[in-house]
Prior knowledge:
This protein is of the alpha+beta class. The protein has helices spanning about 1-15, 60-80, 130-140, 155-180; strands at about 20, 30-40, 45-55, 85-100, 110-125, 145-150, 185-200, 220-230.
Amino acid sequence: MRFLLSFVLVVSLFGAGAAIADDDSSVPRTLSVSGTGSVAAAPDLVEITVGVTTTAATAGAALAANNTRAGKVFDFLRASGVGPGDMQSTNISVSPQFRPRRGNEPVEPEIIGYTVRNNVHITVRDLAGFGVVLDGIVNAGANMVQGIRFGIAERDDMEQKAMANAVRDAVARARNIADAAGIELGPVLSISAGGVGPAPRQFLARAEASSVPVAAGELTVRAQVSVVFEID
């Protein structure tokens, strides 16, 4: 019966995400536990990539048309309060367009025009006005919007709070295990921090005559730690 009780105790400890080191007089007996913590907050900024694509018979004409439309987009962004540090070009390309082959027609590739693409990554810090900004970008000449991602400016503070919550969770688990096992919980010997990451972001947008409606949702930052305690 004593053997059965010991076996049940060991299985219960491991099932709770904890482990007690083997009894050895040369090293301290330890209890290892893991803890998780999270912090949630509403986002206060949004990052997107917008682009202007134009096509014309010549590369020069396509580039000129693109410059005109992209210039209007930049003018609108500046007028909307987007600063120079929140606008960054990510791709500018000029590529030829070839006439499609008809069946098995053995013809040399024929250039029939050129396409110019200008993509810009922007950060909008006025989240309440993001729908109006997005609508204005399209009206100004942008014909591509992708990679919409919500974020928080003070992310470091959230990560620190999530990590602190994870440590508190690990300590609470260790105390519960120690009380249930009838052992004395000693000092912390080591703490190992795991990864810190956000939960998936939410986005909702649909084209309408009015400004684009946007649901930013809530961002959650999660952290994980492993803590080793000495036990008596």
